[in-house]
């Protein structure tokens, strides 16, 4: 069963604009499906344009305008990017527990606009904008750096309410009880990611060029305006949306199952699982959620659903002593997701190199297109975007029908197979990046270019590594989006979307940790280290090969985990 349509005329329509899974609306043809999606996709396109338009070139902004060294700028970008993927936990909790996805997106979008506006002011207004000398060297005051970082972390807070909710909110527009609508849900995730990359394409090409050649005030002002448009787009579709009712605090329900299980540590679980406690009526005790069937794994937590004489002594159920099967299965679903979730961290670390080391590597290469035009190194991420825009329709229209003939699966591959293919492809991105650096350093050594800022090797040799990561994204990232939505309990879908996003945060933090440790170890004894300010005297290829090895190990672990994964089952489903 899926999220149902609502209109003000329906007798199930509630004051907060939400509805339950179990109730059928009188008229669902006026809301949801692809009719509502243009407003959601428009919001996401503009929001991603704003995010990437500001974030794609952020490492250069910190190096130039805030006068930071390579390692400091890389780590600051990684930490900020990581925070952008941690704050979705807050947004997801509020969405699932209290606000619903609609109001969470609306409120946090406004916070996002405030952050973008402050960042634009910090790059435009004299006094809070760093002053630069005739040679282009900037000398920021402490307060100017503080204002810039306040703006950045306000943006990180704003994105926390959008990231975990938009994809889930879009998927909510398709009813799982309607076979015709259900077929479109998997395609929605493909085109949702396609839309993200439309915004990223404009950001990596037009906006990065404006930031480099026109100025940071325009370079940040345009993304701020795009975010304002995103808010308008989202509110414009309000009457067409289907909204799932928030189910109360998921953390409380999880805590109840854990405590009830340990309270009944010595209670034996009956072999007949139909004896476990569940509400007798059709509806789940969890608002906005379907009942879940019992699964055999993690049987310790079944103790929470075992009825004892003490549970019935006072005639009322204490949820801290007795939980329904659905509550227990919610916790089991989350626990089963965690190993799959963990394998996404290394992939996120590989993906994060596009905004850090790839940019730094490109900065040491010839960026000229013709005698006068010079492409910013951060703009090379456009080829990642082009790769995604190429592979999404190829995957949706060609690969899926072709794979379906051999696998018999309606989506061509299972979600876990899709993720695994993406992890495999990502290995080659790091290998190619490492080989390119070996070749580049060979040119440096042969021609004694050690002190040259840029060497006569075209930056476009980086295109393959960006293109490979884009292909890996279409498999791994979209597969994760769909997997965490489908396998999440109905009333925890925002939280599980946030959980998948946290791999991005941990990937960024892991990148920071690896860079810090590698720098500390390899600079001992006065050596320049693997990642010095002058890459011509470094060994960045060692770092890329290190990530390739970690990716191989990660893929092996993923395959082992995926083989043993148990999919959730809703009551009445076939599996």
Automatic annotation (TrEMBL):
Region feature (Disordered): 1-20
One GO process term, biological-process aspect: oligopeptide transport
Family membership: Belongs to the major facilitator superfamily. Proton-dependent oligopeptide transporter (POT/PTR) (TC 2.A.17) family.
Segments passing through the bilayer: 102-121, 191-210, 216-235, 337-360, 380-400, 421-443, 463-485, 497-519, 539-561
The name this protein goes by in its record: NRT1/ PTR FAMILY 8.1-like
Keywords: Membrane, Transmembrane, Transmembrane helix, Transport
Organism: Thalictrum thalictroides
InterPro entries: MFS_trans_sf, POT_fam, PTR2_symporter_CS
Organism classification: Eukaryota, Viridiplantae, Streptophyta, Embryophyta, Tracheophyta
Localization in the cell: Membrane
Pfam family, one: PTR2
Membrane topology: Multi-pass membrane protein
GO MF term set: transmembrane transporter activity
């Amino acid at each position: 069963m899926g999220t149902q349509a609502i209109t003000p005329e329906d007798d199930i329509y509630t004051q907060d604009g939400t509805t339950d899974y179990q109730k059928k609306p009188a008229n669902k043809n006026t809301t949801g499906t692809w009719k509502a999606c243009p407003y959601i996709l428009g919001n996401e396109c503009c929001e991603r344009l704003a995010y990437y338009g500001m974030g794609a070139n952020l490492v250069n902004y910190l190096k130039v305008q805030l006068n930071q060294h390579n390692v400091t700028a890389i780590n600051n970008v990684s930490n900020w990017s990581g925070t952008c993927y941690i704050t979705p936990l807050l947004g997801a909790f509020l969405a699932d527990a209290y606000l619903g996805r609609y109001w969470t997106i609306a409120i946090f979008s406004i916070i996002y606009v405030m952050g973008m506006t402050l960042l634009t002011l910090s790059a435009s207004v004299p006094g809070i904008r760093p002053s630069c000398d005739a040679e282009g060297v900037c000398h920021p005051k402490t307060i100017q750096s503080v204002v810039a970082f306040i703006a950045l972390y306000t943006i990180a807070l704003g994105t926390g309410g959008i990231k975990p909710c938009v994809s889930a909110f879009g998927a909510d527009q398709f009813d799982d009880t309607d076979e015709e609508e259900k077929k479109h849900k998997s395609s929605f995730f493909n085109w949702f990611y396609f839309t993200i990359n439309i915004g990223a394409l404009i950001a990596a090409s037009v906006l990065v060029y404006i930031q480099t050649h026109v100025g940071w005030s325009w370079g940040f002002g345009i993304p701020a305006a795009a975010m304002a448009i995103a808010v308008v787009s989202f509110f414009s579709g309000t009457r067409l949306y289907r909204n799932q009712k928030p189910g109360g605090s998921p953390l409380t329900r999880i805590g109840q199952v854990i405590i009830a299980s340990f309270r009944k540590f010595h209670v034996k679980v009956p072999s007949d699982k139909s004896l476990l406690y569940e509400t007798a009526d059709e509806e789940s005790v969890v608002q906005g959620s379907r009942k879940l069937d019992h699964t055999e794994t993690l049987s310790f937590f079944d103790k929470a659903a075992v009825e004892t004489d003490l549970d019935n002594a006072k005639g009322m159920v204490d949820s801290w002593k007795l939980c329904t099967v659905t509550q227990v299965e919610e916790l089991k679903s989350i626990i089963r997701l965690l190993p799959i979730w963990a394998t996404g961290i290394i992939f996120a670390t590989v993906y994060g190199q596009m905004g850090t080391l790839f940019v730094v590597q490109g900065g040491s290469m010839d960026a000229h297109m013709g005698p006068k035009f010079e492409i910013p190194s951060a703009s090379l991420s456009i080829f990642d975007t082009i790769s995604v825009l190429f592979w999404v329709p190829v995957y949706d229209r060609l690969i899926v029908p072709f794979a379906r003939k051999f696998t018999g699966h309606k989506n061509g591959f299972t979600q876990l197979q899709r993720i695994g293919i993406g992890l495999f492809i990502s290995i080659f991105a790091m290998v190619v990046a490492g080989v390119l650096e070996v070749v580049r350093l060979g040119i440096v050594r042969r021609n004694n270019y050690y002190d040259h800022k840029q060497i006569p090797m075209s930056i476009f040799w980086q295109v393959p590594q960006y293109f490979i990561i884009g292909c890996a994204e279409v498999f791994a990232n979209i597969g994760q989006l769909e997997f965490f939505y489908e396998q999440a309990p109905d009333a925890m879908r925002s939280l599980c979307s946030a959980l998948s996003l946290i791999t991005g945060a941990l990937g960024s933090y892991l990148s920071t940790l690896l860079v810090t440790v590698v720098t500390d170890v390899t600079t001992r004894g006065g050596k320049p280290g693997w990642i010095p300010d002058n890459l011509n005297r470094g060994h960045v290829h060692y770092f890329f090969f290190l990530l390739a090895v970690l990716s191989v190990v990660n893929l092996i672990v993923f395959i082992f985990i995926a083989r043993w994964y148990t999919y959730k089952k809703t009551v009445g489903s076939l599996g």
